[in-house]
Amino acid sequence: MVLPSTYFPTHEENRFAREGEVGLAREFFLKHRPRNLEYLLRNRYDWMNAYLKPGQRVVEFGAGSGFSKEFIRHDNFRITDVEPRPWIDDVADAMDPPYPDGSIDVAVFSHMIHHLPSPVQFFEVMQRKLAPGGLILIQDLNTCFLLRLALRAMRHEGWSYDIDVFDENVVANDPRDPWSANCAIPLLLFRDEDAFRRRLPGLAIERNELNECFVFLVSGGVVVQAKTVELPRWMLRAIDATDRALVKLMPSVFAMGRSVVLRKIETP
């Protein structure tokens, strides 16, 4: 199947019934703790704990359902979103955070980067808000063939490779729509590390790892909650191991996720 370089479904075309229903997703997860989804979320967040130290100010932007607090272990961890919700600590727009410059030690972003209207402006803002040596921890999508196939089938979110994510004048997503999504943004940002360094020299890439495939598909989704069969943990671990092998063997086909660590550095 040939997939176009640009594809954007409308919200009305979405075949999932619960787009954006973060409150219902949170209620369902905390009540039922579905194994498949919990396994996926643990994979997405648990690796971040190794980068956190006591006393740091850690802030997640675009926290949505607030699942991160179930998996990130830190006494000074605050979660934010653009909309006020009972479980959110602060209302904050990642493009204009209400924090003093240099006040954040670690900024966390889970499946949020692909919603940004201007990725390069976002990273410039984050550099100002980070303390010297501060970190940006990112878990997001990678538009491999299987992910694009799934997105096309469900008409959930779209992608475009026909943009320059490093151009400050490019509008990568509709800034008026918090659920506007260009799922190609993480790949466009991080597939060429040298290009990223040239365009954003104040941020050093310390980790850029592809991951995740069928563990994501059997989860049923974080917010949309497609029907799925609950699997025993041993089977989820086996699927995870298979994912790692497939991602290593054919990343352009199977790698649906990407983990990135950026560090703020001094520039000449």
UniProtKB/TrEMBL annotation:
Which InterPro entries does the protein's record reference?
A: SAM-dependent_MTases_sf
**Which is an annotated GO molecular function term of this record?**
methyltransferase activity
Phosphoprotein is among the record's keywords = no
Superkingdom in the source lineage? Bacteria
Biological process terms from the Gene Ontology for this record are: methylation
Alphabetical keyword list: Methyltransferase, Transferase
Q: Which Pfam families match?
A: Methyltransf_23 (PF13489)
Q: Which protein is depicted?
A: Class I SAM-dependent methyltransferase
Q: Which organism is it from?
A: Lysobacter silvisoli
